[in-house]
Design a protein that fits this description.
Helix content of chain B: 55-70%
Shape of chain B: elongated
Oligomer: heterodimer
Strand order of the largest sheet of chain B: 1-2
Largest sheet of chain B: 2 strands, antiparallel
Helix content of chain A: 25-40%
Structural class of chain B: mainly alpha
Strand content of chain A: 15-25%
Order of helices and strands of chain B: HHEEHHHHHHH
Order of helices and strands of chain A: HHHEEHEEHEEHEEEEH
Number of strands of chain B: 2
Strand order of the largest sheet of chain A: 2-1-10-5-6
Largest interface: A-B, 41 and 42 residues
Distance between the termini of chain A: 50 Å
Number of helices of chain A: 7
Number of helices of chain B: 9
Structural class of chain A: alpha+beta
Chain lengths: 252, 260
């Protein structure tokens, strides 16, 4: 009996030690390869980290599903929004001629782009689905410039880890890791369904991150910052979403 | 309580040599510690998934078939409940508070815990013989006659025999197998089919279901089937003797010693 207990004690002890050591190794590995989301603390940190790291390992190069033109939702849905800020209304009065996208942070050539300059890039389009975390969805053709082309134009430095993006609307900002920032389907969108991007859908310029839920595709983009740490932005949780109780990573 | 203590018979008293005529576990426990722990972790996770799932669902209590669906398209059906979003026309003059943030965090956290627990359970059930001994029906019991006897006893609300406190009957085994190997995998599949990142890597998980909105609708139906199971499960426990069955699943003791 005592032998049995001792053996059990030793195996349990060894298993526990191996488990703790394994967790430690896993945590260091995850940090090193960028598999830990900025909102990994708190009671839901475990689930959030497991979701982000496993989806990153599975989807690093996967492409969001694209649809045929016949599947485009008619009429397109423009969901409800906060009333536009004064800054937005001023630019809207001028037909968005003075709308600019500024880029700074870990880039060699910080600067800003007008809408005309962005539209002078080779135009790309994708027919992808917007999926809201509430449960509804629609398919549209999104026309714009892949974010990686704009990032190439300003030369992102090699130690960059995140792109933080800001709306002209107050307190509306988000961020994505480089896997999404350099992803071929991540667009700065200025057109929709063959025409201009309507204000109700984020015009004149919105982000499209089609492998994540709709709230990552922030509307009315005016500013990008490339960074290696999200600590200095807001509460350091990576976006306005976790500050409002929503997950930073929205791949599920 | 004293009675429970007195049942702590030494292992030897229940030695396998007692050659049970019905297949019963040879340990003193009705349910092994592993089954009990995984059972209650699953229970907690399921309740968390149910509450958070309901909260997520009321932000858009309309259901569709196919790839897309929104307030501008015709739903397959809509639930006659108020919504937590002003966007949804419900016929109610008020909007419920938005609880999606923590609900989504909790939903996926509970999903991870229950999936990992379930995997451990299935692996262990396979290797310890739990699957073979306690879940797969024996050939003899699969005869129509044996099956109809059990069903008839159920319909007459006949209290289970003492032997049944030590073993699952055939409808019970089939139900548990169905929940473990059909409903749980289906609820995971339909859930993952709603994830834009997951389906970017494995598109067939959603296209095979008819689209993302179909997956959402199916997720609701499978969840309802699991709730139905939970309700029947609780009713059965009450009919079979709530305290005995709860004690068996908490402490492992069956509550009476006689075994056939």
């Amino acid at each position: 009996m005592s032998n049995f207990s001792r053996r059990k004690l030793i195996t349990t002890g060894l298993a526990a030690t191996a488990g703790v050591a394994g967790l430690g190794v896993a945590a260091r590995f995850a940090q090193k390869y960028g598999l830990v989301p900025p909102d990994h603390r708190g009671i839901y940190g475990l689930g959030e980290t497991l979701t982000y790291s496993s989806q990153r390992l599975l989807t690093r190069h996967s492409l969001a599903r694209e649809f045929s033109p016949s599947q485009i939702s008619k009429p397109p849905l423009a969901n409800e929004m906060a009333p536009p800020s004064d800054a937005f209304k001023r630019l809207q009065a001028g037909g968005f001629a003075d709308w600019r996208l500024s880029i700074d942070g870990l880039v060699d050539r910080p600067g800003s782009f007008s809408l005309a300059q962005l539209k002078s890039y080779p135009t790309r389009s994708q027919i992808t689905m917007v999926q809201c975390e509430e449960g509804w969805s629609y398919i549209a053709e999104w026309i714009g410039v892949p974010l990686h082309q704009v990032l190439d134009a300003v030369s992102v430095q090699p130690h960059a880890r995140y792109v933080v993006y800001f709306s002209i609307q107050p307190d509306w900002w988000d961020s994505m890791d480089m896997a999404d920032a350099l992803h071929p389907q991540t667009f700065l969108v200025h057109g929709m369904n063959g025409g201009e991007l309507p204000v109700g859908n984020g015009g004149p310029l919105r982000m499209r991150v089609p492998r994540q839920l709709g709230y990552k595709s922030v509307k009315f983009i005016t500013h990008l910052t490339v960074t290696d740490s999200l600590k200095g932005f807001g509460k350091g949780l990576g976006s306005a979403a976790p500050e409002g109780g929503y997950a930073w990573y929205a791949g599920i | 309580m004293a009675r429970v203590e007195s049942m702590r018979a030494p292992l030897e008293a229940c030695a396998p040599s007692s050659a049970p005529s019905v297949s019963v576990t040879t340990a003193t426990s009705r349910h092994s510690a592993f089954v009990r722990v995984t059972h209650w972790i699953t229970t907690l996770c399921f309740l968390a998934l149910l509450v958070s799932g309901l909260e997520i669902m009321i932000s858009h209590p309309r259901f569709y078939w196919g790839e897309t669906g929104n307030v501008l398209t015709t739903p397959l059906f809509k639930l006659p409940i108020p919504s937590s979003r002003a966007l949804v026309p419900t016929g109610y003059g008020y909007v419920l508070p938005d609880q999606n943030g923590w609900s989504r965090y909790l939903h996926f956290q509970a999903a991870w815990i229950v999936v990992l627990t379930g995997l451990l359970y299935i692996i262990s059930a396979f290797f310890t013989g739990h699957l073979r001994k306690n879940l797969l029906p024996r050939k003899a019991d699969l005869s129509l006659r044996a099956f109809s006897t059990t069903i008839a006893n159920h319909l007459r609300f006949k209290r289970p025999s003492a032997a049944e406190a030590w073993s699952y009957n055939v409808p019970q085994r089939l139900t548990y197998l169905f929940v473990i190997f059909v409903l749980f995998p289906l609820v995971i599949w339909t859930g993952l089919a709603m994830s834009p990142a997951f389906v970017s890597a494995f598109p067939v998980t959603v296209t095979s279901l008819g689209g993302q909105q179909s997956a959402r609708t199916l997720h609701l139906f499978v969840s309802l089937a699991l709730v139905l199971f939970l309700l029947v499960h609780i009713v059965m426990i009450v009919l079979a003797g709530f305290t005995t069955r709860m004690r068996a699943m908490i402490t492992g003791h069956a509550g009476h010693k006689e075994r056939t």
